[in-house]
Write the structure tokens for this entry.
Amino acid sequence: GQNIDQPTEMTATEGAIVQINCTYQTSGFNGLFWYQQHAGEAPTFLSYNVLDGLEEKGRFSSFLSRSKGYSYLLLKELQMKDSASYLCAPMDSNYQLIWGAGTKLIIKP
Amino acid sequence: EADIYQTPRYLVIGTGKKITLECSQTMGHDKMYWYQQDPGMELHLIHYSYGVNSTEKGDLSSESTVSRIRTEHFPLTLESARPSHTSQYLCASAAGEESQPQHFGDGTRLSIL
């Protein structure tokens, strides 16, 4: 079967750094997306990785290891507005995104 | 910024009614999707389309239908609403290349009494 494993919830302090891990098992692999979703709102795109390595985009970076079925999202200089759920979504051999429940990130002052 | 619009934003309606949720996008995207999501839970794919006159079922499709007569329009119809349909419905679109992300509308929050 296909599945995604992310921590259900994480807490971090404003100004700090947090790493959200994601392990996945899919039938085939065609890249992995990270989305941010604030409570009651729609997901918004953060990053896409298809090759191994680190992709940096401002305060957010995303890492992929295809051989390990592993990705992480790194958030630096945390702000209160970063409180949201973060969804790891790999794309399978049929180019369909596999969605998990995501990680709820709570930022404290 | 993708422009994708869903109407209505909120709908409260009685059991047994026929409901159509509207979704339109102005980006010319070939791919469109309908998802259902309950609070704190994962997105479930209901239907998707890769172009005009092309529709496919997702894993939650049995009680709904879609049509894709025009590129920009992808309505979802529930033939007979039930309380179990109470949820948030999200429409998304994406350009043709596989690396392109899905862009989501603001959603329709549906309550069936």
In short: Chain B has a mean pLDDT of 94.
